[in-house]
Specification:
The relative contact order is 0.11. The chain is an alpha/beta fold. The chain contains 25 helices and 20 strands. Helix 1 runs parallel beside helix 22, helix 6 packs across helix 12 and helix 20 packs across helix 24. The strands form four sheets. An eight-stranded mixed sheet has the order 15-14-13-16-19-18-20-17, with helices on both faces. Helices cover about 50% and strands about 15% of the residues.
Length: about 750
Amino acid sequence: MATTTPPRGRRRAPSRMTRAAGRAAALQKPRVILALLLLLALTSVMLLDGYLRAEVGGDQRVRSNASASEVPDDVIDGGPILSFRNGEAQSRSVPEKTIALTFDDGPNPTWTPQILKILEQNDVPGTFFLVGSMVSRYPGIVDDLVDQGNEVGIHTFTHVDLSYQSDARIQREMAQTQLALAGAAGITTTLFRAPYSSETDAIDNYSWPVYKKLGAQGYTSVFVDTDSDDWKRPGVSKIIEWATPSKNKGASVLFHDAGGERSQTVDALGTYIKKMKAKGYTFTTISGAVQQADEDAGVLPGAPQGQGTGTDAAAGAGARAAGNGLQAAHRTATGATLYEGKALVAAVAVAEWTVPGLATGLAVVGVAVMARFAMMLVLARRHHRRRNRRRFSWGPPVTRPVTVVVPAYNEKECIANTLRSLALSTHPIEIIVVDDGSTDGTKEIAESLGMPNVRVIRQENAGKPAALNNGVRHASHDIVVMMDGDTVFEADTVRHLVQPFADPGVGAVAGNAKVGNRNTVIGAWQHIEYVMGFNLDRRMYDLLRCMPTIPGAIGAFRREAVLAVGGMSEDTLAEDTDITIAMHREGWRVVYQEHAKAWTEAPGSLKQLWSQRYRWSYGTMQALWKHRGSLTDKGPSGRFGRVGMPLVVLFQIVTPVFAPLIDVFTVYSMIFIDFKASLLAWLAVLCVQLVCAAYAFRLDREKYRYLLMMPLQQLVYRQMMYLVLIHSCVTALTGGRLRWQKLKRTGEVGTPAGAN
């Protein structure tokens, strides 16, 4: 989408203000840094959210049918709880008639709280193997889970098959999950369960080294020997049946509290617990099962004698072991781990609020952009048809002479071409060149041409508004045409430009500015922008009778109207927008004459382009703020405030500021969601813009070959225009001031024919 800030004349830095300009430039650096930091923060938030939601860099491969020849048989055939002491593997089983309920893939905001409620109602603990990305998104659930007396373990951060991952990736998966736990509940854990490896027979030659390395770091790897297979959603009765251990054996039983629709799990869990209790089973955590198994094996001191027999004794032992086990598995997070964890959770919370908010903003921006395209196409077509009807005319032809004012500051490269083009005018004109303190011989070049209808007025350097006002004061005629010193007119330009003044209500006329140096990449991009973004917009604003800007490169004014509003103001950097709005507020009509063409030299480098557009954007904001009172103007003079001001704010400030969301979310979707679908959506938007651009080129009778540059323009140029506007907004919000600057000119835009 091309930006829509209207083109305007160059700004120039008065030489006597060089030091002030330098100070102003120095003050801009912190604002540039602030704008870049805001962009970096947004990018970071998007990346974090994408990482949490879509496992960027995640590996969806799951290994199966791999050899287990290097895995000890007593590990594969041993109990579901695997730890290492002095490098030796040690397997433990859950004691008889004891169940360690384990839950994978959570926390989930829908299912985990329901499962916690069932566990609390039945006074049963559970061991939850949590995915770190989910922990960071729902820290409150984890905190409640731990406070309730349940146990937590690591299920990696992004739920990847670790047998495919590098050592660095494995360590990152573990460390990030520990940080998430620290930030959510103030703890870390020694328990671990690998994704896609619920039973010990899943250990193979690829994953075995992973378990050994983690075991050496103090992790206990937890498997299951009874799987409910609830993820298959086979029905409540089947889940209960498959989760029931055989022959009164103890078991580590697997359920899921996330990873899909878990209503059957929730419905089955309460019934399952009651059934197992009725059979004499007790429930414990994994760490409780380990401690109880060690006590039974004589590794740890046993429970005191005389605490009862049978089920009561077993229940007491299980409860005691569960409580002690929590202390063994959980560690209180301290120091850097605690603060880094809290920072992670806080950052995720920001992302959780920011990204949906941006998505909502994207929808609004998308609707506004499409609405703008639709308005431009419909109104531009109506404007074209109305202006080209045979019976249409402004009134009697305007044939009286007019004054052309050319402000010039160090224009030695361009001034001769400008004046020679005016000499070919088919309309009688007086030319006033106002030399604004040039130091390069501009005045001498203008005088040396010997043109009889040219007057050169010399003034001390005071800036473009002062030069224009000086020219208006010296004008001999009631219509004044204003142009830049680097612009050339076609022979019929002035004649076309002044015809609307046959209507006595017209106070100013905007011409059709064209990029003359369009044969470079940057020039071609600006050419597309001028034809589509500027001139198509002008047709729309003209039909709505709320034209916001007479471009400095080509515009015409009634002299009395200019004097009535106080002339060109120095209050803003956009004196052309400023005076245009002022004329609206005085009740004058401002119209667009597309047949009056001027060829101007656009900036030839990205640096100069940035400088120019930065001033344009900032100047437009200044002018709109200066004339904010137009919103309450009454009568015909209030039309701009009622119609033009809202449209300009929406289409030239608000929408462009938020338009980068389209590109940001396109990249986000390509990386994290669906590359193909996102690419197709981006291409669809590009096609819509191409249609608009092609129609604009047709109306202006431009060659379509330049549209071949449009895809590249969208990828590079448009992003630069976004940054320019954001930079301008930061400057405006921080109360910054800008100075005029002189752009470097080459004089390559010669005759109008050459510009074609």
